[in-house]
Amino acid sequence: MIRQGVILFCMLCTVLSAGAQNPLGFSLLKKNNEVELSFQNESNLIVVPIILNGNGPYNFILDTGSESGIIFDKWVIADHNMVNARTIPIYASDGVKITDLLVANDLSVQLKGVSGKQQSMLVFQEESQLDIKNTLGVEAMGVLGSEIFNRFVVKVDYQKQTIRLYEPEKFTKPRGFKKVPIEVRDLRPFVKVTLKQKGQKPVDVNLLIDTGASSALFLDEENNPEIVLPENNIKHIVGSGLTGEIKGRVGRVNKVRIGKRFKFRKVVASYPENWNIRKQIDGTNGNFVRYGTIGSDMLSKFIVIYDYMHNCMYIKKADGYKDAFRFNTLGLRITAIGEDLDQYFINEIIPNSPAEKNGLLKGDEIIALDGKPVFFYKFSEINNILRESPGKRTVIIIRRDGQLIKKSIKHKKLI
Question: Strand, coil or helix: what is 93?
Fold first, then answer.
C-alpha cells in the first residue's frame, strides 16, 4: 500500500443492506443551493466532523465505498435509537459469522450547513474490531456513506481539504473539468479503467470508487485471470477488516488510464488475499464484474465532482497530478496508541527491507526521527518519512526492552 494504515471499508460495507440509509432526509440549511465544509485529510481519507443527535462533534470518514452509515461505538447514540433495532449478521468470505450489527433509527445528523433527519445507521454492538484509531492515528467514530453522495452533487478538493455540496437540480459543471462516466450499483460508484500490465494487452476493468481506501489501486488477481500479479512484488499487510489484518502483495501496474485523457505510469497496486469481491457483484447484471477498487491515493490527484444522479463524475488535474506514486522505502509499518495517539510502534517489518536488515523488530517503539521526538509528528507526517526517496538516510531512535537504540537507515526502492 502507498499509505500506511489503509482501511478497506469495502470489506465490511459490500455485504450490508442498503436499507440502513436515507439520502432524502438530508437538506441544505438556509435554503442555499450549495454549501462548503472543511475536512481533515488523514492519509488521503476524508474525515469530517458531525453532530449526532445534538452531541459531538465526532469524526466520521466520508466513504463512497460504503452503502450505509456506520457507527463504531454505540455509546455515541441514545438507547431509544436502538429500540426494536434490526440485527444484520456479518459473515467472512469463507462463510464464518464474524459479528452482528444493529440498525439504529431516527438519528439526527448535522454537518456544517447540512441537516439529516430520521437517519438510520449500522452500529457495532461491541467495541469495533476495525482498528481505525490506532491504524489512522485519528479518533474516527464512524462512516458516512452513500447518504451524502446519493443526495447531493459532491465536490472533493483534497489539497484545499474542502467539500462542496450542491443541490443536483441547481448544479452546472464548472469550467476545466472533464466528464467521466460512472455506474452506480448498490448505491456505490464504479468506473471503467484501462490497465496495461507488463507483458499483457490493455484490459478494461470495472473498479469501485472508494474514498475509504487510501491506496491507489486494489486488484482482485485471485478471481480474475485478466489481472496479473507483477513479477516484482512483495508480501505486505494491505489493509484492515473485521477479521483483522488483510494480507496480500504489492506491486506496480505499468499504465493506468481513466477516461480518454488521464494517464498514469508505475501505479502502486495492492493484491489482497482471499478478497472474494467478484461474487458480490455477479447476478446484478451478467456482464458486470468488479475487478477491484480505485482509492484515494489516485483520486487525490484530481479535484473530483461526484454526480450520481447523472451517472458521471467530473475531474480536473490537481497540483500533484504528475507526482510519482510512492511506496514505503524503509520497510516498516506503524500503529499509534496512547490517549493523544502520539506513541508510535512498529507493527510490521517488510522482509528484505532496510528496516529488517538494520535489525528493527515488530513491537519496537519509535522515540525519535531525524533528531525530533515523534510526539511532534502527525501520523501522516511519519508515513511521509517512511516513503522518502531511495538513497536518503533517516536517523531513527527506538526503544526495546527499556533500552534506546539508534539507527541510521538508508531508504531503498522495494517495488
Answer: coil
Ordered by start, the domain boundaries in the chain are 10-169, 173-317, 332-410
Per the listing, cell 462533534 goes with 57
Angle at 97 between CA 94 and CA 99, to 5 degrees: 135
Task: Output the pLDDT for position 275.
Answer: 75
Phi, psi (deg, nearest 5) at residue 95: 90, -5
Domains 10-169 and 173-317 share a fold: yes
The residues that bridge with 123 in the sheet, in sequence order, are 71, 102
Q: In the beta sheet, which residues pair with residue 40?
A: 47
How many percent of the chain have pLDDT more than 90?
A: 58
pLDDT on residue 23: 56
Integer Rg of the chain from CA: 21
pLDDT tops 50 at residue 105: yes
Architecture of the CATH domain 332-410: Roll (2.30)
What are φ and ψ of residue 58, in 5° steps? -120, 145
pTM, 2 dp: 0.87
In this predicted structure, what is the pLDDT of residue 231?
Answer: 93
Helix or strand (DSSP H, E) at 345 = strand 343-349
Note the pLDDT of residue 2. 33
Please give the CATH number for the structural domain made up of 173-317. Answer: 2.40.70.10
- What proportions of the chain, in percent to the nearest 5, are helix, strand and coil? 15, 45, 40
Lowest-confidence region among 103-117, 127-141, 160-174: 127-141
Q: What is the DSSP string of 65-78?
A: T-SS-EES-GGGS-
pLDDT band, residue 296 (cuts 50/70/90): very high
CA–CA distance, 342 with 376 (Å, rounded to integer): 8
CATH 2.40.70.10 fits 10-169, yes or no: yes
CA-CA-CA-CA torsion sign (91, 97, 98, 99): positive
Q: Shortest CA distance to 371 belongs to which of 394, 348, 339?
A: 394
